[in-house]
Amino acid sequence: MLADAVILWRAERDVVLRIAGVFFLLPVLALAMLLTRLPEMAEASSQAEMLATFRAFYTANFAWLLLVSLAVDFGSFVLLNLFLHGNRTVRDLLLASLARFVPFVLLGFVTGTVVNLGFALWVLPGIYLFGRSWMMGAAYAGEPERGFLAAIERGFRLSAGNGWRIALLGCGTVAVMGSAALVLAILTQAITLLAGGAAWVQAIMLVPVAAAGAAAYIAFTLVRVAIYRRLAGSISGT
């Protein structure tokens, strides 16, 4: 499946980079710049203080965080449509994705809530539920004739017997790409401190961090599509 993801990347690299630059790179950069306003979280002396600091930050920046989330979701949906339908101009991709975007967001909210409930019980249930639900968004994008509820059923059926394997591939992709972004973030902080905390140095150094985050979203979507195409093909007999 990873080889399939590489093939998809090579076939659509130019379009992917254009879409990712707008809907992944810029939002992740904006998020990174917002997070630089949380230096007091590292100074919190207790978990209660840390939670209070985070809650205040979230409340004060809710609108921006929502815009970042919607932009990333839209970029993911556009890429799903690109890989699963292809042969469209960027304009057609954007318009087609916009027309069906609201149910995709709702689907992500539903599946995210289910996965979070699983993690609330323990780590393993959360990971398993992620594996069983990850294909639902891909099914919604890949099979436009299916509605919201039908996409949930289709995704759940596709993952039957493959929940742990899907979860391993998805979480593994996040772990590898997320680790790279984390290392860059640590380097950014260290270089900024060496430069005397200069804001312009931090702003410049956040660009590669955002690029790593954008690359993680691309890789995550590529693996998601590769898995979906393999499972959908095996069930349909193609």
In short:
With 238 residues, the protein is mostly helical. Helices cover 87% and strands 0% of the residues.
How would you sum up this structure, described in words?
The chain is mainly α and 238 residues long. It has one domain. 87% of the residues lie in helices and 0% in strands. The chain is built from ten helices and no strands. The chain has helices spanning 2-35, 39-42, 47-60, 62-85, 90-99, 101-121, 123-142, 148-158, 163-194, 199-236. Helix 1 packs antiparallel against helix 4 (62-85) and helix 7 (123-142) crosses helix 8. The longest helix has 38 residues, at 199-236. The model has no long low-confidence stretch (mean pLDDT 84). Keywords: Membrane, Transmembrane, Transmembrane helix. This is Glycerophosphoryl diester phosphodiesterase membrane domain-containing protein. The chain crosses the membrane at residues 15-35, 56-84, 104-130, 166-187, 199-220. It comes from Sphingomonas turrisvirgatae.
Helical proportion?
over 70%
Quantity of strands, as a count: 0
Largest β-sheet summary? none
Mean pLDDT: 84
Structural class: mainly alpha
H/E element string? HHHHHHHHHH
Identify the overall geometry: globular
Domain unit count:
1
Number of helices: 10
Q: How much is the radius of gyration in Å? A: 19 Å
Which segments are poorly predicted (pLDDT under 50) over 5 or more consecutive residues?
A: none
* Distance from first to last alpha carbon: 16 Å
* Percent of sequence in beta strands: under 5%
